[in-house]
Design goal:
The complex is a heterodimer. By secondary structure, chain A is mainly β. Chain A is built from no helices and eleven strands. Helix content of chain A is 0%, strand content 59%. In chain A, the strands form two sheets. In chain A, strands 2, 4, 5, 9, 10 and 11 form a six-stranded mixed β-sheet that branches. Chain A has a five-stranded antiparallel β-sheet with strand order 1-3-8-7-6, with no helix packed on it. Classes of the chains: A mainly beta, B mainly beta.
Amino acid sequence: DQQVKQNSPSLSVQEGRISILNCDYTNSMFDYFLWYKKYPAEGPTFLISISSIKDKNEDGRFTVFLNKSAKHLSLHIVPSQPGDSAVYFCAARITSGTYKYIFGTGTRLKVLA
Amino acid sequence: DTAVSQTPKYLVTQMGNDKSIKCEQNLGHDTMYWYKQDSKKFLKIMFSYNNKELIINETVPNRFSPKSPDKAHLNLHINSLELGDSAVYFCASSHDRDIALSRYNEQFFGPGTRLTVL
C-alpha cells in the first residue's frame, strides 16, 4: 500500500518554462512534507518542505503548494533550468512517538535547453 | 567535506555471504537511518537510530542487523545474502527527532551503496 504516490514517472520541460511535479498521499496523519532532488549516483538532497498547517512555501525558484482537502501537493520550479534535470522525490512525515518518512517513487524531470 | 559517507559504493557478492555497509556522518546529527531503494525505485525506511538507540525497525528480515557504535556511525550488516537483497542502500541522518516544524527536519543522505547479489 503506497501512501505517497507520484503518478508521473517522467516529465520534460523547456528551459525557462515552469515545471510542475505532483504528489498525492492517502494518510491524513502526515504532518510535514518534503521534496528531495536526486542526481544519478548520488543520494537525495533536500530541496524544500512544507508543514501541514500551511498551504504554500516558497524558496527562490521553488514553491511547494499543499492542498490538504485533496491530499495533494505540488512542486513548482520557475524558471526551469537544465541543472534542474534530476529525479524528484516527494516525502511525507508521520509523527507517532518518533518521525517516520514515507517516500514516493520519484519523477524524472528533464529540462531541455 | 562529505557530510554523510558510505562505504563501499558498490558491492557485488554471492548468495549466502555475509557483508557489511558502513555509514558515517560528520554533521553532529542525533538520528541516523537506513533506506532501501529497490528495482521499482521505492525508497523504504529500514531502520532508524537516535543517539545509538533503535527507534524504527520496519518489517525487515532479521538477517539485517544495524550496529551503531556511536552517534556518528550506523553500519548495516547483512547475513546470508539473497538475490532479493539486491538494491541501492542509502544511509541518512538528521537532527534530533523531537525538533518540530523547523528547517532542520530534513534528512541528509549518503551517496548510496549498490549491492548486487549473484
